[in-house]
Amino acid sequence: MRKRIPHTRYDLRIRRSDKVVEVGSGHNPSHRANVIVEKFINDNYHRSGDIKIYPHQVFVNADGEHLPFKDKEFDYIICNQVLEHAENPTQFIKEHCRVAKRGYIETPSLLGEFLFPKKSHKWAILSIDGKLILFEKSQMPHYMHDYGMLFLNYLPYQSLTYKILQLSEPQLAVNRYEWENDIDFIVNPTEEYYRSFFIQPWTKEMVEKIFPRSNTLKEFRKLMKGIWYLIKYEMRKLAPHKKLLTLEEYKQLKKIENL
To answer: pTM for the complete prediction?
Structure first.
């Protein structure tokens, strides 16, 4: 079940002793992961750049729907911007719950999918009532424009006020879902209540379901928490990390011939 909504993908409750795996780490793996898993090693269709790996990590070429690990082998599993690509999201999620005790899933929200749609995304996803609701994009109205250059590549790096907005409303453009024991989800819901969020214009009641009504004091507290987290995060970025390796550099380092 969902335990909390982190500020960002770096705001995770991972213990120092936890064994961590990341599925679909792409060009930006979590430094905290001990093991990283990638399915497509020669094709960037599903990611933004070539695979990168930290020297301390173990790389595994595998499908997220069929992970080559024992039951509960890991304490924590990270899945960042991958679920929306899955061919079989039910199997994908069940595998995560099988191999790990806890974890984090991040996907574009419905608003995020409209702002920066990707052809490689098969699913539009919302977090409603603590559940992840996945709806096949082919059943929805067509996406017309991709504003990813503005909302992914420019504002998060150039606008302090936009950063604070993201931290104050962490579910605005993405779904952030930190879970324990299992993941509550529905794929292609038949119930009209859930379907309506994907195929109908949002009413005031629907907006308030995703973004509950608040008051000035609560909003001020969210703002202060967002600013405080931003300060801590910027300080954390100053900590030295080892250089990321390309897949070829990693193979040479580990003396791997076939991968």
So the answer is: 0.92
CA-nearest of 177, 4, 168, 186 to 78 is 177
pLDDT band at 232 (very low <50, low <70, confident <90, very high): confident
> In this structure, are residues 36 and 91 in contact, taking their beta carbons and an 8 Å threshold?
no
What does the angle CA 55 – CA 233 – CA 79 come to, to the nearest 5 degrees?
A: 55
Question: How far apart, in Å, are the Cα atoms of 71 and each of 5, 19, 95, 138?
Answer: 26, 13, 9, 34
Structure tokens at 112: 């995020």
How many Å apart are CA 11 and CA 5, to the nearest integer?
9
Residue 6 burial (CB count, 10 A): 17
Q: What is the largest CA-CA distance in the chain?
A: 60
pLDDT tens across 186-204, in order? 999 999 999 999 999 999 9
Residue reference for tokens 């574009």: 108
Beta strands in 49-169 (DSSP E): 52-53, 58-61, 74-80, 100-108, 123-128, 131-136
- Locate 87 and state its tokens: 């061919």
Q: Confirm if 91 and 125 have CB atoms less than 8 A apart.
A: no
Secondary element (H or E) of residue 208? helix 204-210
SS3 230: helix
Give the pLDDT of residue 257. Answer: 66
